[in-house]
Design a protein that fits this description.
Blueprint: E1 3-10, E2 14-22, E3 29-37, H1 42-50, E4 58-63, H2 67-80, E5 85-87, E6 94-95, H3 105-118, E7 122-127, E8 130-139, E9 142-152, H4 154-163, H5 184-211, E10 218-221, H6 226-229, E11 239-241, H7 245-253, H8 255-263
Parallel strand pairs: 1-4, 4-5, 6-9, 7-10, 10-11
Antiparallel strand pairs: 1-2, 2-3, 7-8, 8-9
Helix pairs in contact: 1-2, 3-7, 4-5
């Protein structure tokens, strides 16, 4: 039987739980994916859903949620897995920002996941509720998270337009929206989808230039990556796409634990 390892990406609006099967000399295999809305009953919901499957042997957590929700979920996980729950395991990256502790952990683990895929410097693009564009510099064995940019994602753009205007409707963003809108709804769709692509493209270009990583690949993740992927928003630049980048980073951060667990079998 493979060793089961749980990774948790606890965000502000969604909690993503992934169970991985780990076997010696084999890449981790995703066995189960569970996405839940973040709310007051998150720990209860997660406990109930995790109980439907075999227990994991250990877990790792990345969190940018409130300390209260983070604590409740972590306590639940300690009762739901057989081994250690690692909250914010050491990512194996230097964080070259003015206040390293203030950088969202999801950005750090996404950068570590990007390294696992590219094995080189990279521009890491996470398109979700927010759009983050970050620079990772790799020099030999030294890996440095340089920082980057944060902007609204498509759903936030749609919500802001509806909430802060008197007569503009709330629309569901569409990745295939045309630039030339023929009515108000289409114009909103255009501004959100085409504008989002333009923002991502410009941020990648500027972050790359300022970090001196013009030739680095773009590593793309996030639920809204469809707005940027086909056709690519980044021209001829090499793009590596991965749906579970934060989880890949958590797995890499716990590599020693995983190797020991697999080797003990």
């Amino acid at each position: 039987m493979p060793f089961l390892f749980l990774t948790v990406d606890l965000g502000n609006s969604r909690c993503k739980l992934r169970t991985w099967e780990l076997d010696r000399d084999a890449a981790p295999r995703l066995a189960r994916a569970l996405d839940l809305d973040v709310g007051a009953d998150l720990a209860t919901q997660a406990s109930r859903r995790l109980a439907e499957s075999p227990r994991a042997g250990a877990a790792a957590v990345s969190s940018v949620a409130s300390l209260e929700i983070e604590r409740e979920l972590t306590e639940m996980l300690r009762a739901s897995v057989d081994g250690v729950v690692h909250l914010h395991p050491e990512p194996g990256l230097e964080v070259a920002c003015r206040e390293p502790r203030s950088v969202g952990r999801d950005r750090i683990y996404a950068a570590r996941g990007a390294f696992e895929l590219a094995r080189s410097s990279a521009i890491v693009v996470d398109a979700g509720t927010a759009l983050t564009v970050d620079a990772l510099r790799v020099e030999g064995e030294h890996r440095t998270f340089l920082g980057g940019a944060i902007a609204p994602g498509p759903r936030l753009l749609a919500a802001a337009l509806a909430s802060h205007t008197a007569r503009l409707p709330r629309v569901v963003p569409r990745a295939d929206a045309a630039a030339l809108g023929r009515d108000t709804e289409e114009a909103l769709q255009s501004g959100i989808a085409v504008g989002f692509r333009g923002a991502a493209r410009e941020l990648v270009e500027r972050v790359s230039q300022e970090a001196h990583l013009d030739n680095a690949p773009v590593v793309l993740t996030g639920g809204a990556r469809v707005f940027l992927a086909k056709p690519s928003a980044f021209g001829s630049r090499h793009v590596i796409e991965h749906a579970e980048l934060v989880h890949l980073g958590l797995l890499a951060a716990c590599a020693v634990l995983l190797e020991r667990s697999a080797g003990a079998r």
